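User: My instructor asked us to take a sequence, write out its structure as tokens, and then describe one feature of it. I'm not sure where to start. Here is the sequence I was given:
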Amino acid sequence: MTRTVGAPPAEAVRRTGPPTRLSPQAVGLLALLLTVAIWAAFALSARALSASTLLPADAALLRFGVPLVVLAPALWRRRRRLAAVRPGPAIKIICGAGVPFFLAAMYGGSLTSAAFVGAIVPGMVPLFVSALMVAGGKSVPRGTQSAGLALIVAGVVALVWRSTTALDADVLLGTGTLLVASGLWALYTVGLREVDLDPIGSIGLLCLPSFAVIALLTLTGVLPTGLARAAGADIALFLVVQGLGVGLCAGLLYAFAIRRLGPERSSVVGSLSPVAVVLLAVPLLDESPTLPVMVGVPLITLGVALANRRPRSKVSAHA
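Assistant: Let's start with the prediction itself. The structure tokens for your sequence are:
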């Protein structure tokens, strides 16, 4: 009896099981890495908005409107679950990543640089999340976590030190606004953990009231809009980056990661985002990294990495 050369034995074929699946933690980490790339694009677009034909309200309309259009049928099926969300977590999500956060991030970016947006907004989130956890009596930073939080603060100080000594009012105001945006995003991170919604439902809970608010502000003239006169290329860019990228894809991925990894570990997104933003801002926005950026961004990156390390639990003697 002959056997085809190179063919595996039948016993080996039978022993071969199904392909190994990624663990829930690995899938959550992959979602975070994709979120990092999208968040880098968000930071770049926040800086690029000041040079485009769009106004902040226009970008917000695209940011919150596009996901509603794409997900409209799915959101309608989830209407009862959305209506049942408790007011406390809903306010954290709507304020934390809605109109207040968006306008703060855009305004802060217009006064500083893409590196500031990419470093401060996601980089300070672990510090604010830890503060919220401590205030809620849930956990206290220990060991390397405390050291990491201290490094984050040192990194932000390094970023703004030169502007402080030179009394650069624009950079200082922009930095303060970005810190507000980061604190709001921490609220959103914690709020996502407190609602019983899937990622699509979380996007709907955020975008529905946010779009209604920004539309009301533009229709009443409180916020100016130039969408009708904006260049088509600018509209297309922000539609893809803000609407589809940040509003839809990052919203789904970040909400998914929060459920798989928890808010503290998910905020590790900030440890990679600042570096990605600084590297991309050089060719895309012609920004040259300054000495404060070269010192502050690595400090924030290392700080976020340490802040998200879990303290080692003691090994049982019977292990």
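For the description part of your assignment, you could build on this observation: Residues 313-319 have pLDDT under 50 and may be disordered. Try explaining in your own words what that tells you about the chain.
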